[in-house]
Amino acid sequence: MNIQIVSKCWCCHESKHETMTHLFLATSIANRLWKHFATCAGINIEGMHLQQVITTWWTKNANIKLMAIQRVVPEMIMWALWKRRNTIKHGGKYSYNQTKENIRVQIHLLIKVKYPWIQKIPTEWKNIVKCLSEYKPKLHAMSIRWVPPLRNKVKVNMDGACRGNPGKSAYGFCIKDEFGNLIYHREKILV
Ligand SMILES: [Zn+2]
Questions:
Q1: Rounded to the nearest whole angstrom, what is the distance from the C-alpha of residue 18 to the centroid of ligand 1?
Q2: Are 172 and 159 in contact (CB under 8 A)?
Q3: Among the four residues 1, 69, 170, 176, which has the most C-beta atoms within 10 Å?
Q4: What does each of the 191 residues of the chain score in pLDDT, given as a tens digit?
C-alpha cells in the first residue's frame, strides 16, 4: 500500500519498533551483553548511542594484542544479536546465555587463529582481557658457536626473512674458509 512502517521487533516481549538502536543496543538482552563485555574490559558505555559504543571499543587503549581483539568485539556482539533475532523470527529459541556463549566462543577462536603461539588461552572474556593485557612473549636464548669447515673446504652461512607473504624480504650469505676468513658475501633486499 506504499506505506512504509518499521517492523515490530523480535528481540523482546515489548514489541517495539525494530530499529538498529533497539535491536543492537536498547533491548534488555543487548544492553546486558554490552555491559558484560564492556565492564570486564574497563569500558563504560552508559548513555551512549550505538555509534559511540562502537567507537569507544575501537579506540579503547590497551596492550596492542588486546586492542586488536577489542576492535572486533562490537561486531561479534551485533552479529550474535542478529543471529538470535533471526532464530526467534523463524520460530526458534535463543537465550541470553546462548548469545553470550556464542560471542565468547567466537572471541576465543579468533585469538587462537590470530595468536596461535599463545598457549592456554583462557575461555572467559574477563580472563582473556587479563591474559592479553599482561602478555609478554617468552624469549628463548641459546649460545651457538661457528665451527670452521674441514681443510680445503669452505662453509656457507645464510639466512633470509620476509615481512608478510608476499612482502618485503631480504637474504644474505657469506662463505668462509677453514680459518674463518671471509671469501665472499652477498646481501640483497627484495621489495
Ligand atoms: Zn525488542
A1: 7
A2: yes
A3: 69
A4: 777 777 788 888 888 888 899 999 999 999 999 999 999 899 998 999 999 999 999 999 998 899 999 999 999 999 999 999 999 999 999 999 999 999 999 999 999 999 998 888 888 999 999 999 988 888 889 999 999 999 999 999 999 999 888 889 999 999 999 999 999 999 999 88
Side-chain-facing half-sphere of 29: CA atoms under 13 Å:
22
| Dihedral pair phi/psi, residue 120, rounded to 5° | 55, 60
The whole-angstrom separation of Cα 181 and Cα 62 is 50
Protein residues placing their CB within 5 Å of the ion ligand 1: 9, 11-12, 16, 27
Tell how far the Cα of 25 is from the centroid of ligand 1, in angstroms. Answer: 10
Q: How many whole angstroms from 65 Cα to the centroid of ligand 1?
A: 35
15 Cα distance to chain centroid: 35
Which residue is associated with the grid cell 596492550?
A: 63
CA 48 to chain centre: 24
For residue 22, how far is its CA from the centre of ligand 1 (angstroms)?
A: 6
Helix locations, the chain, DSSP H:
20-21, 28-40, 50-59, 64-70, 73-89, 96-114, 125-133
User: How many whole angstroms separate alpha carbon 185 and alpha carbon 170?
Assistant: 14
